[in-house]
C-alpha cells in the first residue's frame, strides 16, 4: 500500500492480495489476524517497527504499513468542498 506521494505502488498482484485480506476480515472476523505491508528495502528501523507491531504495539489497528519513517494505519480524510479528485 502507499503511505504518501513518494511511496509508489510496485505490484498490482500484491494490491490484490491486500484486497483479498480485507475481504477475509469482513467475511471471517473471528479468525482475522490483520494485514502488515512491508517496504521493498528493509533496514534496522523497519525490523524494529515490525517487531513492535507484532508485539501488539499498535493498539486497535488491524491493517498497517511499516516503513522506515514510521507505522501507518488506514484513515479516511474528508475531502475539501468542491474537490473532485
Structural write-up:
The structure is a single chain. By secondary structure, the chain is an alpha+beta fold. Helix content is 32%, strand content 14%. The protein is built from 2 helices and 3 strands. It has helices at residues 12-27, 44-54, and strands at 35-37, 63-67, 70-73. Strands 1-2-3 form a 3-stranded mixed β-sheet, with helices on both faces. Strand 2 (63-67) and strand 3 form a beta hairpin. The protein starts with 11 loop residues before the first helix and ends in a 12-residue tail after the last strand. The relative contact order is 0.15.
Any chance you could write out the topology, listing elements then pairs?
Elements: H1 12-27, E1 35-37, H2 44-54, E2 63-67, E3 70-73
Parallel strand pairs: 1-2
Antiparallel strand pairs: 2-3
Amino acid at each position: 500500500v502507499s503511505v504518501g506521494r513518494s511511496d509508489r505502488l510496485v505490484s498490482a498482484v500484491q494490491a490484490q492480495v491486500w484486497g483479498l485480506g480485507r475481504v477475509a476480515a469482513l467475511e471471517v472476523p473471528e479468525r482475522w489476524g490483520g494485514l502488515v505491508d512491508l517496504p521493498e528495502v528493509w533496514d534496522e528501523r523497519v525490523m524494529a517497527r515490525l517487531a513492535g507491531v507484532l508485539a501488539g504495539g499498535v493498539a486497535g489497528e488491524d491493517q498497517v504499513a511499516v516503513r522506515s519513517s514510521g507505522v501507518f494505519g488506514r484513515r479516511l480524510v474528508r475531502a475539501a468542498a468542491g474537490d473532485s479528485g
